[in-house]
Design goal:
mainly beta, single chain, four-stranded antiparallel beta sheet, 12 strands, about 190 residues, six-stranded antiparallel beta sheet, globular
Length: about 190
């Protein structure tokens, strides 16, 4: 898999179960570097008789050599404000921490820009150019319920590196159903 010892030494098992039908144990892991999760750095294994017989892999290789920072310059509250600006939303008001799950994972209030509280977590993220950047991963469910943005803000520069909308919009021309929304939820990494 071209993974180094550093790439694999801090995995966190996020879930596991044993199939009653096949007897196989399925294990799901989250990649962690320097105590910080890797965005979409996940793998799953199917084990039977103490052997791996199937694997899905989205782990990043050579993460220690390709990542520069372990400490953010931008605070999570600033990341929310920068995300709102990049997404052309209004400026958040009275942002407050609702819960501190760790020193790298917070839940903020709605800030006047979201219908849900805003989770913010420090993560590593691989860009399209294969550079590994320290980011604040957060989501904002807009007040009009038209978008549920999942974004990655560079924790050093404040740049919006990645975004996707968890709400899909469809249009069926010539149909009485002119618009439908499909909402997809994201399970938050622990």
């Amino acid at each position: 898999l071209n993974l180094t010892v550093e790439d694999t030494k801090n995995w966190v098992i996020t879930s596991h179960h044993t199939s009653k039908q096949s007897g196989a144990t399925h294990v799901y892991i989250q990649q962690v570097h320097q105590g910080i999760p890797v965005f979409n750095g996940i793998a799953n294994f199917a084990l039977k008789d103490k052997k791996v017989f199937s694997m899905g892999n989205r782990l990043l290789d050579h993460i220690a050599q390709n990542s520069k920072y372990t400490t953010p310059s931008i605070l999570p509250k600033q990341a929310i404000t920068l995300a709102a600006k990049a997404l052309e939303l209004s400026t958040p008001t009275q942002l407050k921490t609702v819960d501190a799950l760790s020193n790298k994972h917070f839940i903020y209030n709605k800030g006047g820009i979201s219908t849900e509280n805003i989770p913010v977590q420090l993560m590593y993220f691989e860009t399209e150019t294969k550079e590994i950047r320290l980011v604040w991963d957060l989501s904002i469910y807009t007040l009009d319920a038209e978008h549920w943005w999942s974004v990655r803000i560079d924790a050093q520069t404040g740049e919006l590196l990645d975004q996707n909308d968890w709400i899909t919009h469809c249009r069926f021309d010539g149909s009485p159903f002119t618009k439908c929304n499909h909402l997809y939820h994201k399970a938050l990494a622990a």
